[in-house]
Design goal:
The strands form two sheets. Strands 3, 4 and 5 form a three-stranded mixed sheet that branches. A two-stranded antiparallel ribbon has the order 1-2. The protein is built from eight helices and five strands. It is globular, with a radius of gyration of 15 Å. The chain is an alpha+beta fold. The protein starts with a helix and ends with a helix. It folds into two domains: 70 residues, Winged helix-like DNA-binding domain superfamily/Winged helix DNA-binding domain (Arc Repressor Mutant, subunit A); 92 residues, no CATH class. A hairpin with a 2-residue loop joins β1 and β2.
């Protein structure tokens, strides 16, 4: 599995549209159509996606199990120095308003068009910041995933709970 595979599964899970063309997925995720094809194949092989008659159905319970128990080990966060970017994890909604500001710089995906200065937090895949800024629901799900990857225990537990609601597992 690769980070873009998880992003693709999340995008499909929150859309609730089983017949999303691969071309549309590629455009919305900012990855090439060939990468979407490879990602779909890997997702089917892992049992996280079922494709039949042109319908792409996410195995939501298996995806939530993976996100809850294995995600932070398979995709550990790479943090860096101060950078300009897009807030993520507990520094972005829906978690930001639920925790008191501790005074630390926010975690951000480094991105040229970002408006916040904070600690660099490597996104799940290269196109994540751009894709997230175009789709607020996808942004919140990716930010929750980053809280699972690199958040404190309380942040991680709340992120898993909120992800379950978003994915409807």
């Amino acid at each position: 599995m690769q980070g873009q595979d998880v992003a693709l599964l999340l995008k499909l899970a929150i859309q609730n549209a089983p017949q999303v063309p691969s071309k549309d997925l590629a455009e919305s995720l900012f990855i090439s159509p060939s990468e979407v094809s490879k990602s779909l194949k890997r997702s089917v092989e892992s049992g996280l996606l079922h494709i039949a008659n042109g319908e792409k159905r996410v195995n939501r319970s298996a995806l939530m199990e993976f996100l809850s128990h294995g995600f932070k080990y398979v995709f550990p966060p790479a943090k860096g120095s101060l950078a300009r970017g897009v807030p993520t994890g507990a520094s972005a909604e829906p978690l930001k308003s639920r925790f008191l500001d501790d005074g630390d710089p926010p975690e951000v995906w480094p991105y040229v068009e970002g408006k916040v200065r904070g600690i660099a937090f490597a996104p799940l895949y290269k196109g994540a910041p751009k894709a997230a800024l175009r789709d607020p629901k996808f942004y919140s799900v990716l930010a929750l995933c980053d809280a699972v990857r690199g958040g404190r225990t309380r942040e991680r537990n709340l992120a898993i709970e909120l992800l379950g609601k978003e994915i409807d597992a």
